[in-house]
Amino acid sequence: MDEFFTEKEKKQLFALYKHLLCSAGEGSVLRRDARKLKAHLVEAARREGLKRNNFGMNPIIRDMQTALIVAEEIGMKGSCLIGIMLHELVKNNTMTLEAVDAEYGEDVGSIIKGLVKTNELYAKSPAIESENFRNLLLSFAEDMRVILIMIADRVNIMRQIKDSPNEEDRLKVANEAAYLYAPLAHKLGLYKLKSELEDLSLKYTRRETYYFIKDKLNETKASRDKYIASFIEPIKKKIAESGLKFDIKGRTKSIHSIWNKIQKQNTPFEGIYDLFAIRIILDSAPDKEKQECWQAYSIVTDMYQPNPKRLRDWLSIPKSNGYESLHITVMGPEGKWVEVQIRTRRMDEIAERGLAAHWRYKGIKGESGLDEWLTSVREALENTDNDSMKMMDQFKMDLYEDEVFVFTPKGDLFKLPKGATVLDFAFHIHSKLGSKCIGAKVNGKNVQLRQKLNSGDQVEIATSNAQTPKQDWLNIVVTSKARNKIRQTLKEMAARQYDFARETLERKFKNRKLEYDEGTMMRLIKRQGFKNVTEFYQQIADGALDVNTVIDKYLEQQKRETEVHEEITYRSAEGYSLQAPPEENAKEDVLVIDQNLKGIDFKLAKCCNPIYGDEVFGFVTVSGGIKIHRVDCPNATQMRERFGYRIVKARWAGKSEGTQYPITLRVVGHDDIGIVTNITSIISKENGITLRSIGINSNDGLFSGTLTVMVGDTGRLEALLKKLRTVKGVKQVSRN
After folding, report:
1. CATH 3.30.460.10 fits 215-365, yes or no
2. Measuring CA to CA, which residue among 709, 710, 702 is closest to residue 729?
3. Strand 590-593 to strand 647-652: parallel, antiparallel, or no bridges (unpaired)?
4. d(CA 170, CA 621)
5. Could you tell me which residues are beta bridge partners of residue 341?
6. CB 296 within 8 A of CB 278
7. Cβ(325)–Cβ(341) below 8 Å
8. Which terminus of the chain, N or C, has fewer Cβ atoms within 10 Å?
């Protein structure tokens, strides 16, 4: 026991234990449970069953510190506190979950189960790896209390590691705090903890920036306090005269939020005007909350000129995390804009303590929408094909996204992220409705699937039984629920069409009393120019390829092979190489470009003029369409660096027959009319290539020609370039 705790830790232990018992309050943790808990922890320490983390933190002290944050700053007690203190014992096999259930109840056991699961993800590193992200969120979604405890634990770690020599792990933990835990705390209404996580993360990752802003705030504190006092004084007097009971205070914004403003507004510290906000907290009866908040609003705006564009009304429709408040920006003395927040005591506690406080008051305002949000988290995680890093980006975006509030024709209210479309709304109501959606009536007017929705819109979805999800729907929707459902349905449709086409082909073989050989069919598919088996069966399903024609070609292939000499033994190896899984990029968005494929809005970029056979990629434009660029396009590097999130994979499919693309060639050679005649003669003799235009410039005995030709694919283009380079007098031929 003595070896497990340092002298400093022993003092900490007893002080924390007393503090925790006091914070838990009478009746929250039974005395007999507290005694048992103490005995279990002493025994675990004696047996050396508990291990320190990468920062050398004592696990018992760390858990006590986390439990204090949960009790005092989040407001959860009882089972949560016992669960926090015991989970290390279960994790290290000093105590079983069955023993916990028997001695402390199943509620404590449920919390420990979630905490053990999430702690296992941190066994190798204090920061989560991308492949563990799904498991982490799944355990969060199983029990809301686990996510609150994990946020408190991360706040605790961030507070304790300021002097740790382990710089590498501190950076990982700090980055993850800003990337994942701060957005989660924000979504759950824990604004105070969210700000602390962001500030500490900035302190560890950008130390100079953090202290520069902190020092600047300290320098301007006296003048700021004086201004706040002069702004508040007349408001205090007027509200008191109206008979309202209230508190009023000024609050300096967090260092991280100031840093964000400096970056976004591209301005120095001195250019940031809203360094603080004024908060008016009213002591209102439940049935008079809205009325008194608007009364206070009226008093403030009578005294100071409001900015109507900066009014935020979360009284009428609270945020999905339960946050309620009225935010206004007014012109204060000396022509300075000042943000004023008006809320009641109940609303303030929810804003400070988030989810736990909201539960306490939910009899007044009903459900917060958090269950709905966590359900959407589960749905996003159910599809195991999701790429975890992509999902982390999408999840972070969903957490911070502003909301729009949309009504059904019956008046039911739904919350969606900003930028959501008619199609998102249809999938939000029900997956079947989304799959059959053909458009909608928004405020009585007919609109298309891609129409973006605004708060207050009344939406009536129009459907058709003939409608099915299309590939380009993935470019229309913004919600993860809709995107996952579309991907899943497209995959199921492709599988059904594949199976149907295959069964049709095999049935025709039986009808004609022919034996079906897989290897021969695979070689035929390759000979016909198909990239994979899926493409081949897709064309049969679409009716683009006739089954009888396929069988005739199969018989020709079989006949050809039987006539070939026996020594060609490599055929079976060739067959095997073709039997690779057909979907090479099942886990990624791959845009397959084909002139016969409908439903994808794409154009070939004019900056690089890609043609069939070029290595290409897709770029999602502002209008929502896709531009196809060559991989070696002059603009490719800049697009990838600045707009990497708008790049989609693309590849050519099927055959290039029947389609021609304009290509510009540059030819340099000796200035002789005979050379030009030879060049045009070669082009005219090439099958499938036509000369569209030619322009010649000559200088100092050399000519430079620009030719535009129509060509079907890179194979034909390469053959043409090879022939042009053999023309006597031609020095250089290149593709622009």
Report:
1. yes
2. 702
3. parallel
4. 39
5. 279, 327
6. no
7. yes
8. N
- Encode 169-192 in three state secondary structure: HHHHHHHHHHHHHHHHHHHCCCHH
How many whole angstroms from its chain centre is CA 502?
37
CA atoms within 13 A on the CB side of 569: 1
Whole-number Å distance between alpha carbons of 270 and 261: 11
Mapped to the 3 state alphabet, what secondary structure does 323-350 carry? CCCEEEEEECHHHCEEEEEEEEHHHHHH
Residue among 373, 327, 335, 333 at smallest CA distance from 351: 327
Count CA atoms closer than 13 A to 65's CA, side-chain side. 18
Q: Which CATH class is domain 661-735?
A: alpha beta
pLDDT band per the 50, 70, 90 thresholds, residue 221: confident
Can you spell out the DSSP letters for 101-139? HHHH-HHHHHHHHHHHHHHHTTSS-SS--GGGHHHHHHH
- What residue spans of 143-252 are helical by DSSP H? 144-160, 167-176, 182-187, 191-205, 207-219, 221-241
Cα separation of 32 and 10, whole Å? 23
| Better-scored residue on pLDDT, 534 or 718 | 718
Q: What does the alpha-carbon distance between residue 200 and residue 182 come to, in Å, rounded to a whole number?
A: 11
pLDDT of residue 712: 82
- Encode 58-69: b = buried (16+ Cβ within 10 Å), e = exposed: bbbbbbbbbbbb
Residue 716 · residue 689 · CB < 8 Å: yes
Calculate the CA 168 to chain-centre distance.
26
The residues spanned by each domain of the chain are 7-205, 215-365, 487-577, 590-652, 661-735
Q: What is the DSSP letter of 93?
A: T
Cα gap 368→391, rounded to integer Å: 25
E strand segments, 637-701: 647-652, 661-670, 690-699
Report the top-level CATH class of 7-205. mainly alpha
CB atoms within 10 A of CB 325: 20
Alpha helices in 543-646 (DSSP H): 547-563, 571-577, 636-642
Residues 485-510 have pLDDT tens digits of 898 888 888 778 778 888 888 888 88
Q: Provide the residue type at 485 as one letter.
A: K
pTM of the model: 0.54
Rg (CA), the chain: 34
SS3 492: helix
Cα of first residue to Cα of last residue in the chain, in angstroms, is: 77
Q: Compute the average pLDDT of residues 680-704.
A: 80
The answer to whether residues 717 and 611 touch, using CB atoms and an 8 Å cutoff, is yes
Which helix (H) or strand (E) covers residue 101, if one does?
helix 97-104
Rounded Cα gap, residues 85 and 68, in angstroms: 11
Amino acid sitting at position 436? K
Facing residues of 306 across strands? 330
